[in-house]
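Hi team,

Below is the intake form for DUF983 domain-containing protein from Phenylobacterium soli. Please confirm the fields before the structure is written into the shared record.

FORM ID: S-0412
PROTEIN: DUF983 domain-containing protein
ORGANISM: Phenylobacterium soli
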Amino acid sequence: MNKPNALVAGALGRCPNCGEGRLFEGFLRVSPRCEACGYDLAKADSGDGPAVFVILIAGFVVAFAALITEIAVHPPVWVHLILWLPATLILCLVLLRPMKGLMLAAQFMNKASEARHD
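The structure came back. Fields below:
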């Protein structure tokens, strides 16, 4: 059997090793082990990387959309608040889990691990 693309598996929330087991226990909590192949996921740590990318992507999309709306329609400020605050929140929540899966899969692909000598 061919190994799956780790990045695709990570973005879909699946184990980057086998592509079948779940990567997350909850919304963002990483499972300690893959239930399908037994791969140890406990050492995986994406840190703040996914949040940074999500902020940059969502900020660009929402700021650009708000600017285009302001130039084209000139709505009052309260319309911007009603449109773009929920859009920012929804976009961030939608992007955070796949981005964390991508970061964990990138660690798996590059065989990265923290250098600890405890």
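SUMMARY LINE: The radius of gyration is 18 Å.

Thanks, M.
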